[in-house]
From TrEMBL:
Transmembrane feature ranges: 61-84, 104-123, 135-156, 602-624, 645-666
Record keywords: Membrane, Transmembrane, Transmembrane helix
Descriptive protein name: Uncharacterized protein
Chain residue ranges for the region called Disordered: 1-51
Species annotation: Shewanella benthica
Low complexity bias: start-end ranges: 33-44
Ranges of biased composition (kind: Polar residues): 1-19
Length: 820
């Protein structure tokens, strides 16, 4: 044996010893501890790296990257809003509803932008050292800042600009908007302004129209100079606008006229069917009469079957009863002949009980026993013969007793009849027929036995009653005393029924078409009917005159439609423009119109300038932020110093200069050239109002056309405004719930005129259209009373594209037309 060899026994013992398991477990535990230490080391290294980044840059790399990405993402909707605002504010046919929609979009995006700006400025150091803490602070800032900015913008504008405006400012804003519209319509021209509405409406023209209203509004001298020319301007503006769309209006009218003629053809066809229904009254009467006689025949057949069944049932019972009754009377005679006194009475009682028991077996009404007897008449000769025979047999005693009875007032033994019984089944059948007739009458519905012919059955009073009842169920109303022999009353009832049915079918058909007009109207009366005029009013909208006929040529259309509308619109504009300034003050008749004009004049240029500045500032800051990211990633970190602070300040100043100075130095367009009349407006604003505002508007007029196409292109690709419109409903309701429209809130401060409720009426073209007011709880009803203000109207109809728009309810305008 040597030391190098181990015995199998010792080897197995070492391998199975507890020490081996402990060593393996210790290795696993050591590996686990080493991994945890490595993980903690890596975590500490990352934390040290983050701390170094915070010490050098004030923020960790991941936070800077997040803010950079958010800035890039935010830039897209902000640029889209800028382009959309330009389209609306500079649009030739933009409505107040369009301005409201883009306002909501802009306030939503502004809230996001300010949230990102403040988060980037305020969150630094320990606040962003950990991801969870940084995101928590960011969420807190968003919750506080977004609603403040979203609602704050509206509140500040309403409180300090719109509501705080004077009546003179509102009237001036209204005139500036009218002049802007007149410029678009080429009703007026300003020497030196190269605006041509017939040319392509590009970004430059849109920006010019956005700014023009504000420039005119700020030029008091121009407003005063135009005071004496208001009527001339208005008449030409209204006429030019009406005539510029004359072909469009007449084509719409022509298409509607053709459609209405087709509707009249359908109406005439319906009237023809209605008349045919009335003309078939006699045929209808004959059909009803034939049906009535068929019913009588069926009832007669049923009656006959009932009589046969009844007779068979009586026959069966008579056959059973006949022998029983014959036996009963035989026994009763024996009781009478053989019994005397109490024995006789007991005999009769036993027979009566047996009779009662037997009668119950046949389910018939109780019949006294004597009713089964037959009355047999006794002749005088028989009475005399019987008396003589009896007298002889009694040796004259019976004759003496007869004489005594006659003297005392008796019948002297003479009888006129006697009651006999029989076993003839027919006799018992006849008795049962009489006794059981009430059962038959009940089974037959009231008819008695003995009706032998259909004629008797037909003229029976009960037949007329039953026929009348069935006819009443079919809608034929006949008098309760009507007889089936009265054909004339029957024909009159059928005529009424046919007319009622024709009228009912006509009304149902008209109701399905949303109308209630009667049949057989001529073309002229058809056109003038209230339902048709209502449809024409919906189609013609503001052009409608009462009545509008559907057979006018273009000359008549101009004479009866366009010219009255020109006069009406001119008068409406002049009523506003020539009104006293007090009418534009709070509570005045034109308060809402003045505020709306002021909002359309002032707010778009301000919002557009701020949005444009934010877009440009964000674009220029992105390279700086990207450079800081590269520094942080490459660990090119240097402690903060006064020099780096000055450098950042210099960069910020350079960016501002680049944004607000460079465009005016190197750019321009035909509106900002020295020989353009727009320079006159800028100079007037600079001299009389504010040089800063003049500079800002000129900067906007130059810079905006560069940026607007970019935002529009982004929106065409990403459909951002389309996506926002899909969620704008809840945002709009949320906005109105927190801050109602300032026009509606101002009504509480005015006189009884502003406190009065106004009837809201929405007219639309589909008869089955559904109208909903989205910003109030009550359901829409035509003429529903509401306070003056702005309302979000949604109109839907099966098979048509829904329309949603804002309307402004005022004392001057309570009816609105929305066409699907």
């Amino acid at each position: 044996m040597t030391d190098n060899k181990q015995s199998p026994f010792s080897t197995d013992l070492l391998n199975t010893a507890p020490t081996q398991h402990k060593m393996a477990s210790a290795k696993k535990e050591l590996s686990k501890i080493q991994k945890q230490q490595q993980k903690q080391t890596n975590k500490q290294q990352k934390q040290d790296e983050t701390d170094n980044q915070i010490a050098a840059m004030g923020k960790p790399f991941w936070w800077m990257l997040l803010m950079f990405i958010c800035s890039v993402v935010y830039l897209f909707p902000e640029a889209v809003f800028n382009a959309a605002l330009t389209d609306v504010a500079g649009g030739r046919n933009s409505s107040e509803a369009d301005l409201r929609a883009v306002e909501l979009f802009g306030r939503t995006i502004s809230g996001i932008g300010v949230t990102l700006l403040l988060a980037d400025m305020l969150l630094k150091g320990k606040q962003v050292a950990k991801v969870s803490r940084a995101l928590g602070y960011f969420a807190l800032i968003a919750i506080m800042v977004w609603p403040t900015v979203f609602f704050g913008q509206k509140w500040l504008v309403d409180q300090f600009i719109i509501d705080a405006s004077t009546s003179e400012e509102r009237q001036q804003a209204y005139l500036s908007q009218v002049l802007r519209s007149a410029l678009i319509q080429k009703s007026i021209q300003f020497e030196g302004i190269a605006y041509d509405p017939s040319k392509a409406h590009n970004a430059t023209e849109k920006t010019f129209l956005s700014v023009f209203g504000g420039l005119v509004y700020a030029d008091d001298k121009l407003i005063n100079d135009l005071t004496d020319k208001k009527r001339m301007i208005m008449e030409k503006f209204v006429r030019d606008r009406a005539m510029s769309k004359f072909d469009e209006h007449y084509n719409n009218y022509h298409d509607f006229r053709l459609n209405l003629r087709e509707k009249y053809k359908q109406y005439r066809q319906g009237s023809k069917q209605y008349n045919q229904a009335l003309a078939g009254t006699q045929q209808g009467s004959d059909d009803y009469w034939l049906d009535t006689h068929n019913q009588v025949k069926q009832a007669w057949s049923k009656y006959q079957r009932g009589v046969n069944a009844f007779e068979a049932r009586v026959e069966s019972r008579a056959q059973k009863i006949a022998p029983k009754m014959h036996d009963y009377f035989e026994r009763r005679n024996k009781c009478a002949d053989k019994k005397k006194g109490n024995s006789r009475n007991r005999c009769f009682e036993r027979l009566q009980k047996g009779y009662d028991k037997e009668i119950k077996k046949y389910s018939i009404p109780y019949i006294p026993a004597d009713d089964w007897l037959i009355r047999e008449e006794i002749s005088t000769a028989e009475n005399i013969g019987n008396s003589l025979i009896t007298g002889v047999m009694t040796f004259g005693l019976f004759t003496v007793m007869q004489a005594v009875d006659a003297v005392t007032g008796g019948d002297a033994g003479f009888k006129d009849h006697r009651m006999v019984y029989t076993d003839d089944v027919n006799h018992y059948k006849n008795v049962l027929m009489v006794k059981m007739e009430p059962d038959f009458i009940k089974e037959s519905g009231g008819y008695p036995l003995g009706i032998s012919s259909i004629h008797q059955f037909r003229i029976h009073e009960l037949t007329s009653i039953k026929v009348n009842k069935k006819l009443k169920q079919k809608g034929l109303n006949l008098p309760a005393s009507w007889s089936i022999t009265d054909r004339n009353s029957f024909d009159i009832a059928v005529s009424k029924k046919v007319r009622q049915q024709a009228d009912s079918n006509w009304r149902a058909e008209m109701k399905a078409k949303g109308s209630n007009m009667p049949p057989n109207l001529s073309w002229q009366k058809f056109q003038k009917h209230a339902d048709i005029q209502s449809r024409i009013r919906t189609k013609m909208a503001d052009l409608y005159v009462n009545p509008t006929l559907a057979d006018w040529n273009n000359r008549q259309f101009k004479q009866y439609i366009i010219e009255p509308n020109i006069q009406r619109k001119t008068t409406e504009y002049l009523n506003v423009l020539e009104a006293q300034k007090a009418e534009f003050a709070d509570g005045g008749a034109f308060e809402a119109a003045g505020k709306s004009a002021l909002r359309a004049t002032i707010i778009p240029p301000i919002s557009m300038s701020i949005s444009l500045a934010l877009v440009l500032l964000t674009v220029l800051k992105l390279p700086v932020k990207a450079f800081e990211l590269v520094q942080a990633k490459r660990a090119i970190l240097q402690p903060k110093s006064a020099k780096s602070t000055y450098i950042k300040m210099a960069i910020s100043v350079s960016l501002i200069v680049a944004i607000f100075v460079v465009p005016l130095s190197v750019g321009g367009n035909h509106y900002t050239m020295k020989d353009s009349a727009i320079n006159y407006f800028f100079k007037q604003m600079k001299d009389n109002d504010s040089a800063t505002i003049s500079y800002a508007l000129k900067w906007l007029l130059i810079t905006q056309p560069w940026v607007q196409p970019i935002g529009a292109s982004i929106d065409r690709s990403l459909k951002i405004t389309q996506g926002f419109n899909a969620i704008s409903g809840p945002i709009n309701r949320f906005d109105l719930a927190v801050l109602p429209e300032h026009d509606a809130s101002q009504t509480s401060r005015s006189s009884s005129q502003s406190n009065a409720l106004l009837p809201l009426t929405i007219t639309t073209n589909p008869a089955n259209a559904r109208v909903a007011v989205m910003n109030i709880k009550p359901k829409y009803k035509a003429g529903m009373p509401l306070p003056a203000g702005r309302y979000d109207i949604n109109v839907t109809a099966p098979g048509r594209e829904s329309v949603r728009q804002w309307i402004h309810l005022t004392a001057d305008k309570t009816s609105f037309s929305i066409t699907l």
